[in-house]
Amino acid sequence: MGWHVANTDISVIEKKSTGRKKRKVPRWIPTYFRESVEAAQTLFKVVRLGEHGIAMTTGGPERLMALVQINKALGEDKPGEHEASEKLERAKREAEFAQSEIDKGFPVLRSLAVVGIWSWLEHFVKGFAVMWICNNKDVFSLPAIQKLKIKFGDYIHLDKSEQAAYLVEILEQETASSLKRGVTRFETLLEVFSLDGNVPPECAKALFELQQIRNVVAHRNSKADRRIIAECPWLKLKTGQPLEISDVMMDAYGSASIEYLMTILRRVCKQYGRDIP
Fold it and tell me: Whole-prediction pTM value?
Protein backbone atom coordinates (compact mmCIF):
# COMPACT_ATOMS: atom_id res chain seq x y z
CA MET A 1 0.00 0.00 0.00
CA GLY A 2 1.13 3.55 -0.67
CA TRP A 3 -0.11 6.87 -1.87
CA HIS A 4 2.32 7.47 -4.66
CA VAL A 5 1.60 10.26 -7.12
CA ALA A 6 3.80 11.54 -9.89
CA ASN A 7 5.21 14.51 -7.95
CA THR A 8 4.90 15.48 -4.30
CA ASP A 9 8.08 17.54 -4.17
CA ILE A 10 6.75 20.53 -2.28
CA SER A 11 10.24 21.99 -1.92
CA VAL A 12 10.07 23.07 -5.56
CA ILE A 13 7.93 26.07 -4.60
CA GLU A 14 10.54 27.23 -2.09
CA LYS A 15 13.15 27.75 -4.79
CA LYS A 16 13.96 31.30 -5.73
CA SER A 17 11.52 32.61 -8.32
CA THR A 18 12.48 34.57 -11.43
CA GLY A 19 10.48 37.01 -13.50
CA ARG A 20 8.72 40.26 -12.63
CA LYS A 21 5.26 38.77 -12.20
CA LYS A 22 6.37 36.08 -9.79
CA ARG A 23 6.09 36.62 -6.05
CA LYS A 24 7.70 34.61 -3.31
CA VAL A 25 5.40 31.94 -1.92
CA PRO A 26 4.97 32.58 1.84
CA ARG A 27 6.84 30.05 3.97
CA TRP A 28 3.73 28.92 5.80
CA ILE A 29 2.31 27.43 2.59
CA PRO A 30 4.97 24.78 1.86
CA THR A 31 5.20 24.10 5.60
CA TYR A 32 1.48 23.44 5.89
CA PHE A 33 1.34 21.26 2.79
CA ARG A 34 4.43 19.29 3.75
CA GLU A 35 3.08 18.60 7.25
CA SER A 36 -0.23 17.51 5.73
CA VAL A 37 1.49 15.06 3.39
CA GLU A 38 3.52 13.66 6.27
CA ALA A 39 0.36 13.19 8.36
CA ALA A 40 -1.32 11.32 5.50
CA GLN A 41 1.70 9.12 4.91
CA THR A 42 1.90 8.33 8.62
CA LEU A 43 -1.71 7.19 8.56
CA PHE A 44 -1.07 4.76 5.73
CA LYS A 45 2.16 3.49 7.23
CA VAL A 46 0.32 2.67 10.45
CA VAL A 47 -2.32 0.76 8.48
CA ARG A 48 0.36 -1.15 6.59
CA LEU A 49 2.20 -2.00 9.81
CA GLY A 50 -1.09 -3.14 11.32
CA GLU A 51 -1.67 -5.52 8.43
CA HIS A 52 1.87 -6.87 8.73
CA GLY A 53 1.43 -7.33 12.47
CA ILE A 54 -1.82 -9.24 12.00
CA ALA A 55 -0.17 -11.42 9.36
CA MET A 56 2.71 -12.22 11.70
CA THR A 57 0.25 -13.30 14.40
CA THR A 58 -0.71 -16.33 12.31
CA GLY A 59 2.69 -17.82 13.02
CA GLY A 60 2.40 -17.34 16.78
CA PRO A 61 1.68 -20.98 17.73
CA GLU A 62 4.60 -22.30 15.67
CA ARG A 63 7.00 -19.75 17.19
CA LEU A 64 5.79 -20.57 20.69
CA MET A 65 6.23 -24.31 20.14
CA ALA A 66 9.70 -23.75 18.70
CA LEU A 67 10.65 -21.68 21.76
CA VAL A 68 9.44 -24.46 24.07
CA GLN A 69 11.50 -27.02 22.16
CA ILE A 70 14.59 -24.81 22.32
CA ASN A 71 14.18 -24.32 26.07
CA LYS A 72 13.85 -28.07 26.56
CA ALA A 73 16.94 -28.74 24.50
CA LEU A 74 18.94 -26.19 26.50
CA GLY A 75 17.56 -27.42 29.78
CA GLU A 76 16.49 -23.90 30.75
CA ASP A 77 13.71 -23.07 33.18
CA LYS A 78 10.31 -23.06 31.59
CA PRO A 79 6.75 -22.33 32.78
CA GLY A 80 4.57 -25.08 34.14
CA GLU A 81 2.69 -27.35 31.76
CA HIS A 82 -0.65 -25.65 32.54
CA GLU A 83 0.71 -22.15 31.88
CA ALA A 84 2.41 -23.28 28.68
CA SER A 85 -0.82 -24.89 27.51
CA GLU A 86 -2.80 -21.70 28.17
CA LYS A 87 -0.30 -19.61 26.21
CA LEU A 88 -0.44 -22.03 23.30
CA GLU A 89 -4.25 -22.04 23.24
CA ARG A 90 -4.31 -18.24 23.34
CA ALA A 91 -1.79 -18.09 20.51
CA LYS A 92 -3.92 -20.48 18.46
CA ARG A 93 -7.06 -18.39 19.00
CA GLU A 94 -5.23 -15.21 18.02
CA ALA A 95 -3.77 -16.93 14.95
CA GLU A 96 -7.21 -18.12 13.85
CA PHE A 97 -8.66 -14.65 14.29
CA ALA A 98 -5.72 -13.09 12.42
CA GLN A 99 -6.15 -15.51 9.53
CA SER A 100 -9.86 -14.71 9.42
CA GLU A 101 -9.05 -10.98 9.12
CA ILE A 102 -6.54 -11.70 6.36
CA ASP A 103 -9.01 -13.87 4.45
CA LYS A 104 -11.65 -11.13 4.64
CA GLY A 105 -9.20 -8.40 3.57
CA PHE A 106 -8.61 -6.71 6.93
CA PRO A 107 -12.17 -5.29 7.11
CA VAL A 108 -11.87 -3.62 10.52
CA LEU A 109 -8.47 -2.05 9.92
CA ARG A 110 -9.30 -0.79 6.45
CA SER A 111 -12.69 0.53 7.53
CA LEU A 112 -10.96 2.61 10.18
CA ALA A 113 -8.41 3.71 7.58
CA VAL A 114 -11.14 4.92 5.20
CA VAL A 115 -12.71 7.02 7.95
CA GLY A 116 -9.25 8.34 8.79
CA ILE A 117 -8.41 9.32 5.20
CA TRP A 118 -11.64 11.25 4.74
CA SER A 119 -11.20 12.96 8.11
CA TRP A 120 -7.66 13.90 7.05
CA LEU A 121 -9.02 15.47 3.86
CA GLU A 122 -11.59 17.49 5.79
CA HIS A 123 -8.99 18.68 8.27
CA PHE A 124 -6.53 19.51 5.50
CA VAL A 125 -8.92 21.69 3.48
CA LYS A 126 -10.57 23.39 6.45
CA GLY A 127 -7.20 23.91 8.11
CA PHE A 128 -5.84 25.46 4.92
CA ALA A 129 -8.84 27.81 4.73
CA VAL A 130 -8.12 28.91 8.30
CA MET A 131 -4.45 29.53 7.49
CA TRP A 132 -5.38 31.42 4.32
CA ILE A 133 -7.61 33.77 6.29
CA CYS A 134 -4.96 34.25 8.99
CA ASN A 135 -2.30 35.18 6.45
CA ASN A 136 -4.29 37.19 3.89
CA LYS A 137 -5.94 40.41 5.06
CA ASP A 138 -7.54 40.85 1.64
CA VAL A 139 -9.99 38.01 2.35
CA PHE A 140 -12.06 40.35 4.53
CA SER A 141 -13.01 42.31 1.43
CA LEU A 142 -14.42 39.21 -0.29
CA PRO A 143 -18.20 39.35 -0.76
CA ALA A 144 -18.76 35.94 0.81
CA ILE A 145 -16.86 36.99 3.95
CA GLN A 146 -18.52 40.39 4.23
CA LYS A 147 -21.98 38.83 4.06
CA LEU A 148 -21.35 36.51 6.98
CA LYS A 149 -23.51 37.00 10.05
CA ILE A 150 -21.46 36.46 13.17
CA LYS A 151 -22.09 36.77 16.88
CA PHE A 152 -19.75 39.64 17.65
CA GLY A 153 -19.69 38.85 21.36
CA ASP A 154 -18.38 35.36 20.62
CA TYR A 155 -16.02 36.44 17.84
CA ILE A 156 -14.25 39.32 19.60
CA HIS A 157 -13.00 37.17 22.48
CA LEU A 158 -11.25 34.65 20.18
CA ASP A 159 -7.61 34.83 19.17
CA LYS A 160 -6.64 35.27 15.50
CA SER A 161 -6.56 31.57 14.64
CA GLU A 162 -9.82 30.88 16.47
CA GLN A 163 -11.49 33.79 14.68
CA ALA A 164 -10.44 32.36 11.32
CA ALA A 165 -11.74 28.91 12.31
CA TYR A 166 -14.99 30.53 13.44
CA LEU A 167 -15.39 32.16 10.03
CA VAL A 168 -14.67 28.90 8.23
CA GLU A 169 -17.35 27.12 10.26
CA ILE A 170 -19.90 29.78 9.34
CA LEU A 171 -18.80 29.67 5.69
CA GLU A 172 -19.44 25.93 5.69
CA GLN A 173 -22.92 26.53 7.08
CA GLU A 174 -23.67 29.28 4.57
CA THR A 175 -22.44 27.27 1.58
CA ALA A 176 -23.76 23.93 2.94
CA SER A 177 -20.39 22.50 1.92
CA SER A 178 -20.56 19.70 4.48
CA LEU A 179 -23.63 18.37 2.65
CA LYS A 180 -21.92 18.28 -0.75
CA ARG A 181 -20.67 15.10 -2.34
CA GLY A 182 -17.12 14.17 -3.25
CA VAL A 183 -14.64 16.97 -3.93
CA THR A 184 -17.54 19.42 -4.26
CA ARG A 185 -17.62 19.29 -0.46
CA PHE A 186 -14.19 21.03 -0.53
CA GLU A 187 -14.42 22.97 -3.78
CA THR A 188 -17.43 24.90 -2.45
CA LEU A 189 -15.34 26.24 0.42
CA LEU A 190 -12.27 26.91 -1.74
CA GLU A 191 -14.41 28.83 -4.22
CA VAL A 192 -14.87 31.56 -1.62
CA PHE A 193 -11.15 32.33 -1.95
CA SER A 194 -11.01 31.79 -5.74
CA LEU A 195 -8.99 28.62 -5.15
CA ASP A 196 -11.41 26.18 -6.73
CA GLY A 197 -10.91 24.65 -10.15
CA ASN A 198 -10.78 21.51 -12.21
CA VAL A 199 -9.99 18.19 -10.55
CA PRO A 200 -8.63 15.25 -12.61
CA PRO A 201 -11.62 12.97 -13.34
CA GLU A 202 -10.07 9.79 -11.92
CA CYS A 203 -9.03 11.66 -8.79
CA ALA A 204 -12.53 13.09 -8.35
CA LYS A 205 -14.11 9.66 -8.87
CA ALA A 206 -11.83 8.00 -6.32
CA LEU A 207 -12.56 10.66 -3.69
CA PHE A 208 -16.29 10.44 -4.37
CA GLU A 209 -16.12 6.69 -3.86
CA LEU A 210 -14.04 7.19 -0.72
CA GLN A 211 -16.70 9.47 0.73
CA GLN A 212 -19.48 6.98 -0.02
CA ILE A 213 -17.49 4.09 1.47
CA ARG A 214 -16.74 6.20 4.53
CA ASN A 215 -20.44 6.97 5.00
CA VAL A 216 -21.37 3.28 4.84
CA VAL A 217 -18.65 2.43 7.36
CA ALA A 218 -19.69 5.22 9.74
CA HIS A 219 -23.46 4.98 9.43
CA ARG A 220 -24.30 1.51 8.09
CA ASN A 221 -21.89 -0.71 10.00
CA SER A 222 -19.94 -1.33 6.78
CA LYS A 223 -22.91 -2.92 5.00
CA ALA A 224 -24.01 -1.66 1.61
CA ASP A 225 -27.26 0.28 1.39
CA ARG A 226 -29.35 1.53 -1.51
CA ARG A 227 -27.54 4.87 -1.61
CA ILE A 228 -24.06 3.54 -2.27
CA ILE A 229 -25.47 0.97 -4.71
CA ALA A 230 -27.02 3.85 -6.68
CA GLU A 231 -24.07 6.26 -6.30
CA CYS A 232 -21.29 3.75 -7.05
CA PRO A 233 -22.77 1.15 -9.43
CA TRP A 234 -19.27 0.16 -10.60
CA LEU A 235 -18.69 -1.47 -7.19
CA LYS A 236 -21.48 -3.95 -8.01
CA LEU A 237 -22.70 -4.17 -4.41
CA LYS A 238 -25.91 -5.70 -3.10
CA THR A 239 -28.07 -4.46 -0.26
CA GLY A 240 -26.72 -5.66 3.07
CA GLN A 241 -23.46 -6.92 1.56
CA PRO A 242 -20.43 -6.33 3.81
CA LEU A 243 -17.91 -3.96 2.25
CA GLU A 244 -14.65 -5.41 1.01
CA ILE A 245 -12.00 -2.72 0.77
CA SER A 246 -9.25 -4.11 -1.44
CA ASP A 247 -5.58 -3.19 -1.81
CA VAL A 248 -6.44 -1.53 -5.11
CA MET A 249 -9.15 0.57 -3.47
CA MET A 250 -6.88 1.63 -0.62
CA ASP A 251 -4.13 2.64 -3.04
CA ALA A 252 -6.64 4.59 -5.14
CA TYR A 253 -7.98 6.50 -2.13
CA GLY A 254 -4.51 7.30 -0.83
CA SER A 255 -3.13 8.38 -4.20
CA ALA A 256 -6.21 10.47 -5.00
CA SER A 257 -6.00 12.23 -1.64
CA ILE A 258 -2.42 13.30 -2.21
CA GLU A 259 -3.13 14.17 -5.84
CA TYR A 260 -5.94 16.46 -4.69
CA LEU A 261 -3.59 18.12 -2.20
CA MET A 262 -1.11 18.75 -5.01
CA THR A 263 -3.91 20.10 -7.22
CA ILE A 264 -4.77 22.67 -4.57
CA LEU A 265 -1.10 23.52 -4.12
CA ARG A 266 -0.77 24.24 -7.84
CA ARG A 267 -3.75 26.62 -7.66
CA VAL A 268 -2.24 28.40 -4.68
CA CYS A 269 1.10 28.79 -6.43
CA LYS A 270 -0.62 30.33 -9.44
CA GLN A 271 -1.84 33.06 -7.13
CA TYR A 272 1.85 33.96 -6.78
CA GLY A 273 2.65 33.57 -10.46
CA ARG A 274 4.32 30.21 -9.93
CA ASP A 275 3.72 27.04 -11.95
CA ILE A 276 4.76 23.70 -10.49
CA PRO A 277 4.66 20.24 -12.14
Answer: 0.87
